[in-house]
Amino acid sequence: MTSTPPPHPAPVPPLRWFVTGASGGLGRELVRTALDAGDRVVATARRPEALRDLLDAHPDRLTVVPLDLTVPDEISETLTRALAAGRIDVVVNNAGYSIVGATEEMTDAQVERQLAILLRAPIQVTRAVLTPMREQGGGRIIQISSVGGQITTPASSAYHAGKWGLEGFTEALAKEVAEFGIYPTIVEPGGMRTNFAANIQTTAPSPAYERGAVGTFRAFITSAGPEVFTGDPRKLARAIFDTTREPRPPLRLTLGGDAYDMISKALHDRLDVLATQRELARSVAFTGS
Fold first, then answer.
1. Domain total for the chain?
2. Does the active-site annotation cover 159?
3. Pick the catalytic residue: 23, 146, 157, 163?
4. For residue 46, is it within any domain?
5. Cβ-Cβ contacts under 8 Å for 56 (sequence gap 6 or more)
């Protein structure tokens, strides 16, 4: 008696991507990976010339657009043009950077720009594609968060505000749009060997924070070598790409041994503290009529 071999999964037709922050690092690797797979990509970048080699190699499948994500009107206009040119199957909100310094040292402009890039722009991009994705029967929204979307370090409060906010927004969104075949995935990488560290901005240090937790972390992160940034952006890009071929991708994707270990510890610590408050939590309920 012979058994019937399992059916092969149906091939996925070429997809069309919209990727922010594609000048280098993970964003560029995602663009390259998608193009190598035969997909089409609209890549936005502050430095479009950084993608010249990919554009020369794939002139028919890659569109490169300069975009300043701190300008809402530019985001709207860019997405309107991209959607007018065809359906978008995969959106990747990748652009990001970090301001390092004490909360007290940050200027209003620094906080506003950090949140504009990490939170406001991804929300605007996401909202713009929801109606088209719903009407076309589905899509993927990939939010590049960070290990810093689940853990915190001193001297990074605005960065964590952006990443934790993005994760909360995306988790709620996922519950709204799953019935339409739209699946968001929150990617939480650890340290990657990209130019992210070189692009870190710092506040003007004040004597009060020169030593202690802020000063120690600022000195560490601004002088950290390759031993801290162990993630290979090409491998991360491949892992992210693979989720776009899964029928039900994960809500969260943690990438990097450092990210896994730090997030695991943070979640266990949080649960341990929560357990100590069980009786107190239940004690505040009404007991009478």
1. 1
2. yes
3. 163
4. yes
5. none
The answer to whether position 158 is within a domain reads yes
* Whether 209 is catalytic: no
CB contact at 8 A, 212 and 164: no
In a domain, 5, yes or no: no
Q: What residues make up the domain containing 92?
A: 16-277
Q: What is the pLDDT along the chain (289 residues), one digit of tens a residue?
A: 566 666 665 567 899 999 999 999 999 999 999 999 999 999 999 889 999 999 999 999 999 999 999 999 999 999 999 999 999 999 999 999 999 999 999 999 999 999 999 999 999 999 999 999 999 999 999 999 999 999 999 999 999 999 999 999 999 999 999 999 999 999 999 998 776 666 789 999 999 999 899 999 999 888 877 677 789 999 999 999 999 999 999 999 999 999 999 999 999 999 999 999 999 999 999 997 6
Q: Which of 98, 156, 159, 209 is catalytic?
A: 159
CATH number at residue 250: 3.40.50.720
Catalytic residue among 23, 98, 145, 156: 145
User: Is residue 163 among the annotated active site residues?
Assistant: yes
